[in-house]
Prior knowledge:
The protein has helices spanning 4-14, 27-44, 48-52, 60-73, 91-101, 117-122, 125-136, 251-285, 297-326, 330-359, 369-376, 387-401, and strands at residues 142-145, 161-165, 168-175, 186-193, 198-205, 211-215, 229-238, 242-243, 287-288, 291-292. It is 48% helix and 13% strand. It folds into 3 domains: 18-136, Butyryl-Coa Dehydrogenase, subunit A, domain 1, CATH 1.10.540; 142-243, Butyryl-CoA Dehydrogenase, subunit A, domain 2 (Beta Barrel); 251-405, Butyryl-CoA Dehydrogenase, subunit A, domain 3. The chain has a 4-stranded mixed sheet. Strands 2-3-7-6 form a 4-stranded antiparallel sheet, with no helix packed on it. The protein is α+β, with helices and mostly antiparallel strands and 406 residues long. Helix 2 (27-44) packs antiparallel against helix 4 and helix 10 packs antiparallel against helix 12 (387-401).
Amino acid sequence: MLSTNICAAFFRNTFPCEKTLKIEISTDARQWQAIAREYADEYLQPHEVEAELNDGVLPDEITRRNKQRAIELGFSEIDVPKDHGGRELSMESQVAIWEQLGRTTNALSWCFSEPQQWMFDACSQEQIDNYILPMMRGEKKDCYAITESGPGSNLAMLEATAVRDGDDYILNGEKWYVTSANLADFFWFQGRIPDEDEDALFLIDKGTSGIEIVATPKFSHSYAAHHPTYQFTNVRVSAAQRVGQSGDGMSYTRSWFRHERLMIGARSCGAAARLIEEAMAFANERIVDGAPLSEKQIIQVMLADSATELYASQLMTYDAARSWDRGDDLKAQHVRCSIVKLYVSEMANRVADRAVQIFGGRGYMRENVAERFFRELRVDRIWEGTSEIQRLIIARSLLKRGLDNM
């Protein structure tokens, strides 16, 4: 068996605090990874504690600076088709970007809007001109009014309705957890159309008559972006505000879920890497009984488990991204994104818990990155479909398609 001192030296040399595990990705993805890492380190991370102690809010000039720099770097264009002025990056490169942005707490990386490719497939040219391209330019911000109090994000059980009335639709329903609504200019509203027996998305300007905030609850994390509850009562919108055509059903919402679940995996990888680095640095510096804390084998076990699970998570996340880029079967992509969301979000929570334990009392202070991530990462096991929902999706795919076709 290796001695304690040799084990400690091995960990210091193998996982130095300024580096993370390296896996094989494309040259383009590696370049974007470096750009995003520099942005996260220089523009976002220095303001985390300030944001934490001010309900997630930074001075306006800092927020504007961070947003402008993100747009200059092209982050708001990464999933926009080239024929609309975007960069149309591979999903592998997009994961590389969000992995690095995920290293920061307090949702500081949410300072810019990010139009997704499916929006250009779903929306009319008028909608693209009025809503989607302004997002890319930083002129507008969106929010999603999909989740409800009873069915949650179970799309098959949503109760909100959209009833046709001549050239308009009348929308009714209560929507919960409308993330970033306090900062947004318009909603994506999901409602069921009784006459067509299917769901559809609608674009609604925030100031439209009939929209009322019911509550703005406080959550565990300290984000400038709130998650209010909204009541939509007889909200009248033009038929031109409907996204897509009859028969499209929930296909575009599922596209959004696939994208978001994969990016939760990417951000969780970044968060876990930062936590391991910070915990390792502290363990090397903290002296207990005359020796670094990192020489205690129980600490080494926690670091080893964290590094192992992060490696598996990165491989899984990037493989799912490459599956997307190859254009693999859509149902297979869907379940892979669920697998990523399930495993990687739970991995990051385990790493955060270990990091708090390694920091000890310091890990329970809000100015400590482990404490903030411990609270913030918990919701990744809930939103965009809970871990339990992901397990059901995975199990149903396994039973229907078999292991080889997942």
